């Protein structure tokens, strides 16, 4: 399988060649040259597979430069009950992504049983093992530099901790994360993980990452890389649980289901789109946003208008607080019939700080053909849904999953099972749970009291030179 850039001006590459990089050299995002097709008979066979077996079967269709036996070893090592151990009491952790049925035809797919209690572990844990494998084969190293306001940074650190050839330098805004989030990241004692708390906001952290990455000489000398959500391997790994969820919610492979996906950067639902393109019988992809509704607006109107930093709201589902959706270009590439020249035109506007409008084009009518519908929710909606699910079904959901469920209920159709992706556990967002229910969320036993563990973090001013010096000092000069 070769990978193409959505902007059409970069050479096609193999999976391992794009694994460690970010954007394609022409500024585009990589996608498979064609989507592998999974016929009905194969779906019937896959229905019986374990999560790791299914991951292996799907990845084998997308990766042709890792031998099958190695791919199997990587999937087995990643998708085990000891890593995805944080499931609800009484559930089977060997399921990896257990399905909870709220009522007939309405399900939650639990994607947040990994080490950091958010769905990003599903892909990031595989990425950690893939990185280690490919770096060892090539005799290379990588220094991952990132900025986080919570979920992504901790998922990356738990995936990369102790991995040979990998160091992680993660910037976070000093004093602005919850005590639990700080404890999750800063209590890691692994020698290859470096937490930097920047005196400033998340945007200051992100600006430093950009400044360091724009210094081509520094970037090359210190082998600076990223694990952000445009990484193709993350999207690829996420395709697997759409298949797993489909099998869990259906009896036979002629049935259809719809998925509701709490969305921010469009990474999660992009995997659903690709699963559908591969032939998984998905009727609708229900995209849910919070008050930061740039994507909902697009799917309702055909206008894509990224927001400014000032327009971006801080909400109680913070992992969906985005101003633009970095993976969205992948979907638009398919929407415009894979015409890279059209994508280049549209993103020339976006990259210049503007917007685009598909209303007068034939593409708008195709949105339905791709199965997309959308909606948004508010803080009040989240509180109401968290209460309803708790009182009606005895299940506690987090704020992001509440966004998904709110929009799922608006688009639910009789006779079509609807699967809401549970993207985080309520324990991560205790403050809103207390507001909604007047009680504490359950925290997995092994995470009790992590706030009192010793922490390892360097506090620094928002100063690019200081961050560079910190990295250089830990990478042993000219290597
Ligand atoms: C990252 C995240 C999302 C948004 O996922 P995207 O792939 O960015 O659309 C939703 N919920 C939670 C809990 C997250 O951490």
Order of strands across the main sheet = 3-4-14-9-10-13
The helix content, as a percent range, equals 40-55%
CATH topology annotation of the domain at 93-117 and 233-437: Rossmann fold
CATH architecture of the domain at 93-117 and 233-437: 3-Layer(aba) Sandwich
* Shape by Cα distribution: globular
Defining traits:
single chain; 479 residues; alpha/beta; Rossmann fold; 6-stranded mixed beta sheet; 5-stranded parallel beta sheet; 19 helices; globular; binds pyridoxal-5'-phosphate
Fold topology:
Blueprint: E1 3-5, H1 15-19, E2 30-32, H2 40-46, H3 51-62, H4 68-78, E3 99-103, E4 106-110, H5 120-138, E5 142-147, H6 151-160, E6 166-173, H7 179-186, E7 193-199, H8 202-214, H9 216-221, E8 224-225, H10 232-249, E9 257-262, H11 267-277, E10 282-289, H12 294-301, E11 303-304, H13 328-335, H14 340-351, E12 356-357, H15 366-369, E13 372-376, H16 379-393, H17 399-411, E14 418-422, H18 430-437, E15 458-461, H19 464-474
Parallel strand pairs: 4-14, 5-6, 5-8, 6-7, 7-15, 9-10, 9-14, 10-13
Antiparallel strand pairs: 1-2, 3-4, 11-12
The chain binds pyridoxal-5'-phosphate.
Please, could you describe this protein's structure?
This protein is α/β, with parallel strands linked by helices. The protein has a domain at 93-117 and 233-437: Rossmann fold (3-Layer(aba) Sandwich), CATH 3.40.50. Helix content is 42%, strand content 15%. It has helices spanning 15-19, 40-46, 51-62, 68-78, 120-138, 151-160, 179-186, 202-214, 216-221, 232-249, 267-277, 294-301, 328-335, 340-351, 366-369, 379-393, 399-411, 430-437, 464-474; strands at 3-5, 30-32, 99-103, 106-110, 142-147, 166-173, 193-199, 224-225, 257-262, 282-289, 303-304, 356-357, 372-376, 418-422, 458-461. The protein has a six-stranded mixed β-sheet with strand order 3-4-14-9-10-13, with helices on both faces. Strands 8-5-6-7-15 form a five-stranded parallel β-sheet, with helices on both faces. Helix 5 crosses helix 10 and helix 16 (379-393) crosses helix 18 (430-437). The longest helix has 19 residues, at 120-138. The protein is globular and about 60 Å long. The model has no long low-confidence stretch (mean pLDDT 95). Pyridoxal-5'-phosphate binds next to helix 11.
């Amino acid at each position: 399988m070769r990978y193409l850039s959505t902007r059409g001006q970069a050479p096609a590459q193999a999976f391992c060649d794009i694994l460690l990089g970010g954007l394609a050299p022409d500024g585009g995002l990589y996608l498979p040259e064609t989507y592998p097709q999974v016929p009905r008979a194969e779906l019937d066979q896959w229905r019986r597979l374990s999560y790791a077996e299914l991951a292996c079967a799907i990845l084998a269709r997308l990766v042709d430069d890792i031998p099958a036996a190695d791919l199997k070893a990587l999937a087995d090592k990643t998708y085990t009950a000891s890593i995805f151990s944080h499931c609800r009491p009484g559930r089977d952790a060997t399921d990896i992504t257990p399905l909870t049925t709220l009522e007939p035809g309405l399900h939650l797919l639990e994607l947040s049983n990994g080490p950091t209690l958010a769905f990003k572990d599903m892909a990031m844990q595989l990425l950690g093992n893939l990185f280690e494998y490919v770096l060892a084969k090539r005799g290379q190293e990588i220094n991952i530099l990132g900025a986080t306001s919570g979920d992504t940074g901790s998922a990356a650190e738990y995936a990369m901790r102790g991995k040979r050839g990998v160091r992680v330098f993660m910037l976070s805004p000093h004093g602005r994360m919850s005590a639990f989030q700080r404890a999750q990241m800063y209590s890691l004692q692994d020698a290859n993980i470096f937490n930097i708390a920047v005196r400033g906001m998340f945007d200051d952290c992100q600006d430093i990452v950009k400044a360091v990455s724009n210094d081509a000489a520094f970037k090359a000398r210190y082998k600076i890389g990223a694990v952000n959500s445009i990484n193709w391997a993350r999207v690829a790994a996420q395709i697997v649980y759409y298949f797993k969820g489909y099998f869990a919610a259906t009896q036979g492979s002629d049935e259809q289901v719809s998925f509701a996906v709490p969305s921010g950067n469009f990474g999660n639902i992009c995997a659903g789109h690709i699963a559908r393109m591969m032939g998984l019988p998905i009727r609708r992809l229900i995209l849910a946003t919070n008050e930061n509704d740039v994507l909902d607006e697009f799917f309702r109107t055909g206008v894509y208008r990224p927001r400014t930093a000032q327009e971006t709201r801080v909400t109680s589902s913070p992992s969906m607080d985005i101003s633009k959706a970095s993976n969205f270009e992948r979907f638009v590439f398919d929407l415009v019939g894979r015409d890279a020249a059209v994508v280049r035109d549209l993103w020339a506007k976006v990259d210049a700080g503007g917007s685009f409008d598909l209303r007068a084009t034939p593409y708008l009518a195709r949105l339905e053909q791709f199965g997309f519908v959308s909606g948004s929710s508010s803080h009040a909606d989240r509180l109401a849904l968290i209460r309803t699910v708790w009182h009606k079904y005895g299940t506690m959901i987090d704020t992001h999953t509440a966004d998904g469920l709110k929009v799922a209920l608006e688009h639910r159709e009789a006779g079509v099972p609807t699967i809401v992706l549970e993207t985080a556990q309520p324990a991560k967002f205790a403050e809103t749970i207390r507001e909604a229910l007047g009680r504490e969320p359950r925290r997995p036993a092994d995470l009790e009291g992590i706030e009192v563990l010793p922490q390892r973090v360097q506090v620094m001013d928002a100063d690019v030179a200081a961050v560079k010096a910190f990295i250089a000092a830990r990478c042993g000069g000219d290597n």
